[in-house]
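Can't attach files on this board, so I'm pasting raw text. These are the components:
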Amino acid sequence: MPIYNAPLRDFQFLMHDVLDMQKIDLPGYSEMDRDFTGAVLEAAGKLASDMLAPLNRVGDEQGCRLENGVVHTPDGFKDAFEAMKEGGWTALDADPEYGGQGIPYLLGIATSEIFTAANMAFAMYQGLTHGAYSAIHTHGTDEQKNTYLPKMVSCDWTGTMNLTEPHCGTDLGLLRTKAEPQDDGSYLITGQKIFISSGDHDMAENVIHLVLAKAPGGGEGTKGISLFIVPKFLVKEDGSLGDRNGVSVGSLEEKMGIHGNATCVMNYDGARGWLLGDLHKGMRAMFTMMNEARLGVAMQGYACADAAYQNAVVYAKDRLQGRAVTGTENPSGAADPLIVHPDIRRNLMDQKSFIEGGRALVLWGAHLIDRSHAGDADAEGLISLLTPVAKGFLSDKGFESAVQAQQVFGGHGYVEEHGMSQFVRDARIAMIYEGANGVQALDLVARKLPQDGGRHMMAFIDRIKAFCQKYGDNAALADDFVAPLKAASKDLQTAAMFFMERGMKNPNDALAGSSDFLHLFGHVTLGYIWARTCLAAQHALENGGDDQEFYRTKIATGKYYMRRQLPMTTTHLARILSGAEPVMALQPDAF
Amino acid sequence: MPIYNAPLRDFQFLMHDVLDMQKIDLPGYSEMDRDFTGAVLEAAGKLASDMLAPLNRVGDEQGCRLENGVVHTPDGFKDAFEAMKEGGWTALDADPEYGGQGIPYLLGIATSEIFTAANMAFAMYQGLTHGAYSAIHTHGTDEQKNTYLPKMVSCDWTGTMNLTEPHCGTDLGLLRTKAEPQDDGSYLITGQKIFISSGDHDMAENVIHLVLAKAPGGGEGTKGISLFIVPKFLVKEDGSLGDRNGVSVGSLEEKMGIHGNATCVMNYDGARGWLLGDLHKGMRAMFTMMNEARLGVAMQGYACADAAYQNAVVYAKDRLQGRAVTGTENPSGAADPLIVHPDIRRNLMDQKSFIEGGRALVLWGAHLIDRSHAGDADAEGLISLLTPVAKGFLSDKGFESAVQAQQVFGGHGYVEEHGMSQFVRDARIAMIYEGANGVQALDLVARKLPQDGGRHMMAFIDRIKAFCQKYGDNAALADDFVAPLKAASKDLQTAAMFFMERGMKNPNDALAGSSDFLHLFGHVTLGYIWARTCLAAQHALENGGDDQEFYRTKIATGKYYMRRQLPMTTTHLARILSGAEPVMALQPDAF
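---
Top answer:
Structure tokens for the assembled complex are below.
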């Protein structure tokens, strides 16, 4: 059975030593002392290790079942969901006005990582609810907020997002689901939605669907789209549940992974819905939640990888196979443990340096979201730029990392018994949903890069330049961190310039390099994050606190990233500079 | 339902235009004219498309069942296996003395690719039999050959390879299966073997297991290992089947993929076996088949990727989503097909340039094996060097390529319905079995690189140098092929020198970079292969033959590889040159 231990020490280090959160003037931050965050994380970790992780394989093996229109979750999910609710975990970073605890998102996403790593398919029921909560919280009327939010904060009711239809996913302008206005101000929603995560299940009294549909008079394409609240059971004026609405589960998808989550085909047959936000402005309402939702998927990428990594480490220490080339290390055993072998060590270091770097990036991103919620426009611009990078890069690399963890097990990784296959199969979805990674790359190059005249991109590069200038003479950082970061960020700048110069004349020159740009950007961002992280570790070392070993390990892990991962920027740049010609040379018939 | 079409045109081009096989003085080669090879490949393609490909999903969904000790294969497998036998496909490249058709391995592996791409799990039943056939053919006594080979050539009896035990895979010196000599010259074999592909099934009368076990007096470690023939049913003197032997299936493994192949736990309880080859020289007997078996896995890597690619192309042309940034291309449709988008095109070009390059490498490798069987020591040295590269690089990249194909489908790739998940799950195994890719990297750096004083490595580099010298002024090749190949091969040379200089003092400096070296080597090899391939295409273009479009497409695909894939050598070299320090910096406890 796979194990999972929440990385409590790393969270505390990132929150307090790197981000120094308690000293930041943001709502709720001053109360976040080490003891408090430590207690919250430890409790989340206990629930994750004791209850959620053991259900991960169960969820994978049993999957969800649709019987007579009712979706049944795997054995044990219901009890675990109750435990989540009772522990207040669903309400952590929600608005106190609706029963939430008002904790910063920075701490909220840390607990989400813990639950996701332990059991991704399970954590998604609450994750989707949180997304729907945010949409109603931002765009709902007071009546809508009062009707839905308290129950969604407690997860007595869960939420979903209904975008995709059989013929359209990325290109939502094509969607066909119709909303007919009724005299009472409500709408009748008719159409079919697919790939609806947590679409229905037996763990909550009600499911609140947020549905994109076309109401009359909105024009063609995405301009005609509005967002509707469509509850599974209609809610009476007193808040109790009334009739079943005209929405049903058509079928459950058979998927590669996340079997414990019910991915539903949802049929809307004149279901009653209520407009959320402005008419014909549904896309905008959706997009305001995107930064948060996509950062959540970025987190899934490395969270799933972390669970896989932890098990690979256990296996690499336990499994005896071969002898160290530099001399026997386990003379009393029949062989040395796998971890003595340099190629196994490289594999583990790849994973470790990615996961810890990814965590630092996502916590920083969550902090930027906290800032932007408090009205910081620069933070909003920066996180808007970094969101496609974090989502695309961390989910691509998270999958790769899980595959590496599986590889440590050899043939034992390919059989389902050890659970390593599941981590790989689960991690795969993060590259696809919330906008496939190719769409993230397009968003980055075509929208985020030129946004506000390229201001946010320039600010990001200036930020790195300033860092490099400030620490260029720092003995601990100069050679191992500043120099490689400088070189990598120069590659990023060259690529951005190439796009700006060439992209106007031939947009394909930018688009052909978009995925490479996303990855180049991702490496530079992780390089920067690692440099900042190791600066904090260096300070802690110099201050002579406890846990010297933790800080030294942190710095060695960061160095590994700079030496062995950052050189990827050279290759990405070379590909980008080759432009559109090699990519577009063939006619479609030639494929 | 996924489609598959055998790449007949590409095979013919590689065999006749690139390798010019008919003019080569090797057994059977002179008979291989275009018409003959074309007819064979077309027939194989027809069987694959019509019968094997439609069973691929069936095999994945149903898997194999173990009932009362009997393994049942999925519906339709038995009929398809009969069709393989009746068509003579199992006998193609086997020795005519035992009922084979004596066709060169070069053509044999092409037909294997076709069957593998259509249905990998199914093709493995014959593939493993061919491996066992080769072992008996090379090391068996005349009596053993006469007893087993005719039935194995016809696949009336199939074969297996039994190496792995629960506690050892890579480190076979640890194995515990025992062989006790009997007075009649046979042995009684006792022990448990796991991960035995095609271990048992209902498609053949008998299964001939080749089993590694320890006989008394052989000493510790791998030196004490011998190889035994252990048939499921004992064979009487007249060749008919006698009693059931003491070998049984303990259980079937639940795996991530290749569900249609029965991966068995085999229990040997005093089963009767006969020594194959010399006593205590079992490892040597195994290794003589390794080049061929590993080249077969290299083939699986890109074959599975090709099937995935073909379906991604169909989807990219059919699925309407978004508009081309350079102007609408499908004005009568609601949107343009995916294939207009540069990032989709990049994705498909990555796949296409890898798959065609991989095929060219494996066919060249098969040709080298044909040469080495005819006594060519240089060819044997070269293929021995290239084998770990081909196995590791093509299986790693084949999996990546299948993941890319799946990505084209977006959410539709994650659900099982379209079969893209299966290609990914199936392709994953090739990175693990026949020596996990980390072991290939170790074999490359620690054994093959220094083999015969580094002669084969130097010969390979000289071969590329000679090519670059010869075509450095060729207008069609110089800039697009020779220049990047020169740069990449310089990286390879630098890496090899680094290992030679540093590896003696600190072997970890070489081993920490072993996987990067394997990939660097793989890119250079594919770059070289692509340059040769495009030279042949250029000649064909100049000769003004038919099919100009095919040759132009080939050259454009090759250019893509040189421009967009070959730059990876820079990154691999940078990692290698960083040495062991970053990789080995942490103590095991720090993970």
